[in-house]
User: Fold Membrane protein from Streptomyces gelaticus.
Amino acid sequence: MPVPSARLRAPLTAVGVPVLACALALCGLGAWTATGRAGSPPHVAVTKAYVYQPLGSTRETAAFFTLTNDGGSADRLVKITSPDTAAPPALSEHRMTSSGAAYRQPVGSAAVPAEDGLTMTPHGTDVTVRPKGTWLPGEEVSFTLRFAYGKPLKVRAVVVRPGTETDRPLRP
Assistant:
């Protein structure tokens, strides 16, 4: 069989490379689909919820949630509401100044990665809340967590002393 001329090889190479790239991409997408993860929606659940008891004359405190997402797609926590707070709860992150002072910075949303989750802590992401009345350890505070893609989740967070957490089972 004769060797193709240079004039024929150049167009075949120009067409062949994109066709090969598309074929490889289709094989990869087919494998992803075969594993059952393609198009799998987020599936977020709350496994822990607690809120610090306000101390002294402090009007604000913080709530913390541990969220898991065993779905195939990421989601975002975009809003939190509560009938038990004097002002709407706000997502925030703790930041440090160059002099070492801590402050809260409001954030619009928090990522809940696929096949992972989000654990809120006093040194990272949390929810700033202002109680309507006095909250005592052991009481429960109602929250509704709203997500960009998933269903809203209603949860009751237990009030604990600052610096502690709770192992109490969650109640919807």
